[in-house]
DNA sequence: ACCATCTTGTTCAACTTTCAAGAATGGTCC
DNA sequence: GGACCATTCTTGAAAGTTGAACAAGATGGT
């Protein structure tokens, strides 16, 4: 990382600067927009909604805290606070893990699932309006590929990922 | 917005879902990465750094609060708090606006500029490594266009934008 | 069994963000 | 000038986030 401080910095070209600014603007606008949409319609910020979605897709609608954190790309600390809040809402429940006494499972409650069922259509619509309704099919494909490349760069793949017996 | 709750919701296709998840993952990973990079190397979060950059590019390195907020896509409230913090660091100074007694100018101090000079290379390098070093020139162009479209959708252009005398 | 070490999840304090409310000034219309 | 509304910016409290420190349990070597 600090290799940057040595030698002549490789500045961004004009084109790259424009793209970078466009990226920052679009992503912050979208994040704000979805945060407000969900706060209004579902009573929670976007990330919390993402936690419920993730749980809803898990077997038995429950997941170990650490795995939920990993899947949603947030820290365990943040997740602890978030689940505490969602628990107060009655949308998630904690449950001791049988096989590991340190562990906790976050379980989506029936109420939590109900909230999802009620608010998912509006949220999908918001995402559509902001993104998929504006982009051509080609652009959607391009965006997907670009985002995959970026995520890969930032989340160094476990070198043993395809050697499960070594994990 | 709430038109979504009526009629059959238009769900995302499998492809669209994949793209949406990739988008969420990549953008949150990048934002976290840059936040940590800047917190470590410059002692402030990414958005605060963006404020300094914006000021550094303004005439006389100062800007009205409201304009700074508009350019950086944050609320005036948030900006007030942010500038207060940057002022404590000695990187920004407030100055009364001559022509409008309600107004304040946020001015980048010499110290603030120095912080930028010192940390910009490392930050640009981080951006490069995460984005521009991985994408082909075509992809960079595609990303720029896609982000422009999205930003436009979210930030309804002022209909009088090109009629300055009506603003 | 023992010890060192890693992992899991929580907690605390410091910091940031949001939302609603409010003080001050500007602009317009009569 | 005065009434009225809009704009600018700040404030305070509640909510959310971060990073470090911590307790408890797992793991592996000896």
Automatic annotation (TrEMBL), chains A, B:
SMART domains, per the entry: HTH_MARR
Superkingdom of the source species: Bacteria
Example of a GO biological process term: response to stress
Name of the featured protein: MarR family transcriptional regulator
A GO MF label: DNA-binding transcription factor activity
All residue ranges annotated as the HTH marR-type domain in the record: 16-152
Pfam families associated with the record: MarR_2
């Amino acid at each position: 990382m600090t290799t940057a401080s040595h030698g002549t910095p490789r500045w961004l070209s004009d084109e790259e600067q424009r793209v970078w600014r466009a990226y920052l603007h679009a992503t912050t606008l979208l994040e704000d927009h979805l945060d407000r949409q969900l706060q209004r319609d579902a009573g929670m910020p976007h990330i919390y909604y993402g936690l419920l979605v993730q749980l809803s897709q898990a077997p038995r609608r429950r997941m170990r805290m650490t795995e939920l954190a990993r899947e949603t790309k947030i820290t365990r600390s943040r997740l602890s606070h978030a689940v505490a809040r969602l628990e107060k809402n009655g949308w998630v429940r904690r449950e001791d893990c049988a096989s590991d006494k340190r562990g906790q499972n976050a379980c989506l409650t029936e109420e939590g699932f109900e909230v999802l069922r009620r608010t998912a259509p509006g949220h999908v619509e918001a995402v559509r309006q902001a993104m998929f309704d504006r982009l051509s099919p080609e652009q959607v494909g391009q965006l997907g590929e670009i985002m995959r490349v970026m995520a890969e760069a930032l989340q160094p793949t476990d070198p043993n990922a395809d050697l499960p017996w070594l994990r």
